[in-house]
Amino acid sequence: MQTKTFEVPNIACGHCVRTIENEVSDLAGVSKVEASQDTRLVTVEWDDPATWDQISSLLAEINYPPANDTANRARG
Q: Across the strands, what pairs with 35?
Protein backbone atom coordinates (compact mmCIF):
# COMPACT_ATOMS: atom_id res chain seq x y z
CA MET A 1 0.00 0.00 0.00
CA GLN A 2 1.30 3.43 -0.90
CA THR A 3 -0.04 6.74 0.39
CA LYS A 4 0.69 10.21 -0.89
CA THR A 5 -0.58 13.59 0.30
CA PHE A 6 -0.09 16.53 -2.03
CA GLU A 7 -1.43 19.99 -2.78
CA VAL A 8 -3.75 20.66 -5.71
CA PRO A 9 -3.92 24.46 -6.11
CA ASN A 10 -6.89 24.29 -8.51
CA ILE A 11 -9.31 23.08 -5.82
CA ALA A 12 -11.81 25.92 -5.43
CA CYS A 13 -15.14 24.34 -4.46
CA GLY A 14 -16.99 21.23 -3.42
CA HIS A 15 -17.47 20.24 -7.05
CA CYS A 16 -13.68 20.17 -7.47
CA VAL A 17 -13.38 17.88 -4.45
CA ARG A 18 -16.07 15.50 -5.74
CA THR A 19 -14.53 15.42 -9.22
CA ILE A 20 -11.09 14.52 -7.87
CA GLU A 21 -12.46 11.89 -5.49
CA ASN A 22 -14.73 10.29 -8.10
CA GLU A 23 -12.24 10.25 -10.97
CA VAL A 24 -9.23 9.01 -9.00
CA SER A 25 -11.21 6.38 -7.09
CA ASP A 26 -12.21 4.85 -10.44
CA LEU A 27 -8.60 3.81 -11.12
CA ALA A 28 -7.99 0.12 -10.49
CA GLY A 29 -5.93 -0.29 -7.31
CA VAL A 30 -6.93 3.00 -5.67
CA SER A 31 -8.50 2.26 -2.30
CA LYS A 32 -8.96 5.73 -0.83
CA VAL A 33 -9.12 9.34 -2.04
CA GLU A 34 -9.71 12.29 0.27
CA ALA A 35 -9.64 15.87 -0.99
CA SER A 36 -10.13 19.05 1.05
CA GLN A 37 -11.45 22.33 -0.29
CA ASP A 38 -10.10 24.20 2.74
CA THR A 39 -6.49 22.96 2.65
CA ARG A 40 -6.37 22.03 -1.06
CA LEU A 41 -4.69 18.80 -0.01
CA VAL A 42 -5.45 15.40 -1.51
CA THR A 43 -4.51 12.05 0.01
CA VAL A 44 -4.53 8.93 -2.14
CA GLU A 45 -3.92 5.32 -1.06
CA TRP A 46 -3.26 2.70 -3.71
CA ASP A 47 -1.83 -0.72 -4.54
CA ASP A 48 -0.98 -2.37 -7.85
CA PRO A 49 -1.99 -2.05 -10.59
CA ALA A 50 -2.30 1.71 -9.88
CA THR A 51 0.87 3.81 -9.99
CA TRP A 52 1.68 7.36 -8.96
CA ASP A 53 2.32 8.19 -12.63
CA GLN A 54 -1.22 7.07 -13.53
CA ILE A 55 -2.75 9.05 -10.68
CA SER A 56 -0.73 12.17 -11.42
CA SER A 57 -1.49 11.95 -15.15
CA LEU A 58 -5.21 11.55 -14.51
CA LEU A 59 -5.22 14.57 -12.20
CA ALA A 60 -3.48 16.65 -14.87
CA GLU A 61 -5.93 15.40 -17.50
CA ILE A 62 -8.94 16.56 -15.43
CA ASN A 63 -7.22 19.93 -14.74
CA TYR A 64 -6.28 19.26 -11.10
CA PRO A 65 -2.52 18.65 -11.34
CA PRO A 66 -0.53 18.18 -8.13
CA ALA A 67 1.70 21.08 -7.10
CA ASN A 68 5.35 20.26 -7.71
CA ASP A 69 6.62 21.44 -4.34
CA THR A 70 4.47 19.07 -2.24
CA ALA A 71 3.90 16.15 -4.63
CA ASN A 72 7.04 14.43 -3.39
CA ARG A 73 5.74 13.72 0.12
CA ALA A 74 5.15 9.99 -0.06
CA ARG A 75 5.26 7.03 2.23
CA GLY A 76 4.60 3.50 1.27
A: 42
Helices (H), 1-76: 14-25, 52-61
Out of 3.30.70.100, 3.40.50.720, 3.40.50.300, 3.40.50.2000, the CATH code matching 2-75 is 3.30.70.100
pLDDT in tens, 20-65: 999 999 999 999 999 999 999 999 999 999 999 999 999 999 999 9
Contacts of 60 (CB under 8 A, 6+ apart): none
pTM of the predicted model as reported, rounded to 2 decimal places: 0.85
The distance of Cα 20 from the centroid of its chain, to the nearest Å, equals 7
